[in-house]
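Thread: Newbie trying to understand structure tokens

Hi all, I'm a second-year student working on a class project, and my supervisor (Dr. K.) asked me to get a predicted structure for one chain before our next meeting. I've only ever worked with sequences, so writing a 3D structure as a token string is new to me. If someone could post the tokens and maybe explain what I'm looking at, I'd be very grateful. Here's the chain:
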Amino acid sequence: MTCFYLNTRSTKNKTVDLQAIVYSLDYNVILITESWLNSTIPDSFILPSGYVVYRNDRTGTRGGGVLIAVRMDLASHRHVELETYPESCVVEVNPQPGKSVLLSVVYRPPVYTNAGMEDMDMLSSFIDSIQSHQIKNKIIVGDFNLPRINWTLNEYTNDSRVLEREFCDVANACYLHQMVNFPTRFNKDGTGNILDLVLLWDPTLVDDLREGCDNIGSDHTAITFSIPILCKRVKQPKRTVYNFKRADWSGLKNALLSHSWNLDDNDIDVLWDNWNTSLCDIVDTFIPKVHCKIQNSAPWIDSEIINIVKKKERAWVKFKKTGNSNYWDKFRSLRKQSKSLIKRKRADFLFEVRDSLRDNPKRFWSFHKIKNPGKIPHSITYNNSTTSIPAEQASLFNKYFHSVFRNKDSFDIACISDNNNDTNSLCSILFSATDIFDVLRALDPGKACGPDGIPGKLLRECAFELSHSLTVIFNASLQQGKVPSAWKLANVTPVFKKGTTLALKTTVQYHCSAWFPKFWNAASTRKYCPFTANYFRWATWLYAKSVLCYTTC
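---
Reply by user tm_fold:
Sure, no problem. This is what the structure looks like when written as tokens:
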């Protein structure tokens, strides 16, 4: 498990360089102090993808703040109950018996007055709580702003203040080992101090601890180290889509026209299952599928940037080992080239996004997701219950969304049965193939498909070939007075609105249902709007008053 630590002194202004280092060198864990972040800056702005970000931002004043980012393929869990120190973050990584690692990041502001003693008491209490935790492997990393300590001898110097002496006593009493042996911040006169510390109880837990090659403009030195523990990787789900660029459209259309759809069953669910199975079998024959590559880096970081950053890292390591000035000159040259290349690549990407906005708006909105929060937060809270377990999160979302729905029994639906005569009933409505064809051709192929996985582009391109068989299903649905059960399924996504992402009441609900209930609604309202309005007026919006929502119905 490789780790990267840095006091960034404003992460917001250094995100581009930080992303280049993190994604190029593929660190497992990122630890940052003095992040200078606030609630207006989303996690995706710092690291667009591939990492779960845990933050503890300073509130009220500028500066401070800490964060820990863990790769998504590593299981992790935040321990908020252990974060007793104001600017601290505690995360358990690789939760396995005997192999769990409790990582803590701390920022102690440079306070040396009487308030500093109170701060030191809180820091001592924090260290005690970490030490007493049941997890065996524990590491504390951070900027402690205690320069007058001789860490070679693990004791304070003659000119040390009370705070340095107090911290040395705490470290010795807790049997802590401080592993950093090089200056992490230099003064104007060229002298350096060890302000950033790596503290642990077992000195064998950290391996290959060294000075990082690039501080990305910070006045502190980066620290890299590895933890020699075999980690269990969480497999990321693979997403498979149709490759329409290699589709045999003519062969597909001929196969759809000549196929016998077997739509004689009276059960609407059986009808739909037969139709859906036949369609998928035919489409798979004429349109190949591809696996979508999961984007685990910023979109402008390509192989050219990754290669030059790795070369810079190798030159730095050789210089630190040998002290050869040639490696130093090579490192400086590569550092200059990498900064220029990163800046140019990002600018080129932004220009491409701008120029392709009209022809490919999806690319713009994909980039927009980087700049704005849209993901489900790692931890959520509802009714004083906080969880980061996916199944429990889904349960909390379900309880909240259900709580803001109106009770259907409060509606007076007697008016529907009053108008339900022989000439104005569902059984008297019949769709024609032309009605279905018009709806299919009006589809937006850029919209996402629902749980059935049938793309809108496929339905639009094969509108004529599918309209006749779909007409049979739609008319059967009307005559039986029921819709297929599969049409009631939808992908429900919480959409963050404002406030903290941890609170469910700051989210609204967005449905992505299958195409076919939308067709049914669109086709019926087009031709029979006066009748169907009586059925859908009360059922379209079932949310509580003053609670904002989206719906695709």
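A couple of things are worth pointing out once you decode it. The chain has three domains: 2-226, 303-371, 376-536. DSSP finds 15 helices and 22 strands in the chain. Feel free to ask follow-ups in this thread.
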